[in-house]
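[job 0412] stage=fold_complex status=start
inputs:
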Amino acid sequence: MTAPALALTDKARPRRASRPLDERLLFGACVLVPVVALVLFFLLPLATIVWRSFTEESGGIGVANYLALFRTPGILRAVGNSLLVGTATTAVCLVLGFAVAYAAQRTRVPGKRFVAAALSLPLLAPSLVLGLGLIFLLGRNGLVSNLLGVRLNIYGFPGLLIANVLYALPQAVLIIQAALRQSDARYYDAAEVMGATRLQQFLGITLPNVKFGLLSAGFVVFTVTITDFGNAVTIGGDFSVLATEIYNQVTGQMKFGIGAAVGILLLLPTGIAVYIERVAAQRQFGTASESALPPVPDRLPMRDIPLFLVTMTLALSITAVVATVVFASVVRLWPYRLDFTTKHYSITLSGGYDPLWTSLGVSAATAGIGTVLLFALVLGLRRMPPGLAKAVYLLAVLPVGVPGLVLGLSYIFAFNLAGTPLHMLYGTALLLALCNFYHYHTQGFLTMVTGMRAVPAALEEAAGCLGGGVLRVLGDVVVPVMIPTLLSVFFFLFMRSMVTLSAIIFLVSPSTNLAAVTVMRLDEAGFVSQAAAFSTCIMAAVAAAALAMRGALALAGRRKAV
Amino acid sequence: MDLQIKNLLKTFDGFVALDRITLSVEEREFVCLLGPSGCGKTTLLRIIAGLMPYDGGELLMGGRDLGTVPARDRGFGIVFQSYSLFPNMTVAQNIGYGLKIRKAPRDRIAARVGELLDLIKLPKAADRYPWQLSGGQQQRVALARALAVDPSLILLDEPLSALDARVRADLRAEIRDVQRRLGIPTIMVTHDQEEALTLADKVVCMNHGLIEQVGTPQDLYLRPRTRFVADFMGSSNLLPTAWVRETMPHLMPGRPDGAENAFEACVRPERIAVTPAPDAEGRVIDLTFLGNIRRLRLSWRGRELLAETNRDPGVEPGAAVDVSVAADACAWVRA
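[job 0412] stage=fold_complex status=done
writing structure:
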């Protein structure tokens, strides 16, 4: 019975060998290096945090840390608060997110570009900028309190809810809009001819078909909210939530076991979100038809006027909050003395602007290392046996299921162990860069995979058959086609790395302080105008990066066209 | 009920998509709108469905003007090329959707769905979702969905184009069968002349927003009136008047009066008889074996002709052959 199998391997062997050795080595390394890095900087920390969550203070193995959660009053209250604010934010974001996405995708409501631009603002800034802006507007010494002569109390639940909604809304809109895009005008034609009214079509076809999009958006918003650090610190006040509580437990009271246990629990909602997304993708795969025509946006005053008012209000609110931060950074004493000054831009906190330069350096490293590793991985993935490729693919998309907060915690556990070779990375800017990269690994990877799909395999083979070596084919065929993708991934990693707070908050040291952390420290110390000034600098840097990306993409596009 | 279309006009930003179309669809009739893409056939179907407004003319269903009746009140059934089953509903829910909209009682919907599932020969598919069905099965369900509300008119928008050849032939026969049995007037859009020939009672051949010719399939194939119809309904030899007068004078009596260039003779390849003869003036250029028929390219009296035969003509390329065309084998078409 072994004879056929033997014959098969005999047949396969010479074929493999016919590939030149250097080529095999190159593509082997392409996969090996990123995979080893993934294991070291993602799987290992994750395994460590799991391990630590089951390691009791006495040194034994057990669930004592999880039980301790219930006996720590601070934690219990924080969990309750987090669930409350998470649920409320999710509900509000789903309703508003659907309204904005629907208006953009299915109607001809005017001002779509402005709404899209306003919604991209929160992505350019650290989350706490929204909290900061809200305090400037609605806080005790805010604009509204000052104008009305009453003292509003925005700190706590209401402020946190508004800030979280503004922060998470753009992400919800992106997901729901993608779900709304997946449709066919014929569904509506068929329903129309069958006698369905517009309302019946909306309830019977539109809503059920974005069910998975809504679910997925809901879990993403929920996770973003309960793991977000910046807004909770800035505007949360006495309303303690999980993210801040875990930070206190770990960095303040050194209760690592409890920190680890909470970290593991936080994996649950994202895990569910990722699972739902996969199911949805499969379902939609079955229905996607090549000949599908997108539904034609139409006009309907009864629906469009309220939608217009809602979307415009939202867009204006976000713009106002962000603009207020910028404005408050250049006036003497917001909101009482509004004469122009640049004095807040001389930062008095130790280090001055050093953290901004560190952030730029770390972000550049994140983007550079990340783009190279992802490109190599995707390149090698193409030439791997399908089974193995699938396993690597799964590993590469796994990081999306791990919130930054958990990743940051796990890095402490994995790298703050004296006596291990990895310990020397602890406290370095390189580790911050790696942490940021693996935080956003999945999004970068998926973009890269999509880009690589645009490189026709036949083209590569044709170039190969013409006698081009591997490097030649890479340089002449793959890289030129991939340039827009490489640029997108590079700038995406750079921009995320500039503004993220939740992972690196656990890892920064005085010598490697980062910009977003500095904003938080300034705000904590009461230097709100300086915090606004520093935020403005970050936003300017990220906006410049966004502009640079557009410019580079346009340039790449033009060169292609010539 | 019958459908009358009178002088129907439709323009898109000045481009005339339908140029005063007049057409009738009788009770129980199966009408095919045939033409190349962009000829206006789908526009016409969408206007009849009520999915698109029109700019002039009349649309009457059983004498009632449809101009102000919205699509949802017309009571028609429609099937699209891309199946377009609601992905969020099971097969049974899809079929029952129209009845549910009409607030039919639940048991009546269930009974009707069962009946239709039997009709389309998918009795066990009720609880499946569209993505679990093959293309042919999905299109059957789409047909059942259109039939569920007892439509007064069925509209089929290239329903077979997305299917592979075998399934297409099967479903074609089924559509024909169901339509005959239920006797619902039906309009189908297609660009496939074979489909139109086998299915239709009446073929409407369209080009550039105009109707070129309306008639039975036999009419359009055997007696095309324009060069476009002759070309579109299968292959043909289109021969100029001067050449016919010189070489086949026996075809001339059928020619309508008109300028020399106004008409051409259309002779179908299977109506050209080819017989081997040692010193004949025709030559075989080449010969293609197509299974049921053989196609020959001939050179005869200064022209190249296309002939088809279902028997072995017993010739090789280069052989000398006699060529003859019967007097009734020719249709004169407007050039």
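[job 0412] summary: The beta strands of chain A are 331-333, 337-340.
[job 0412] exit 0
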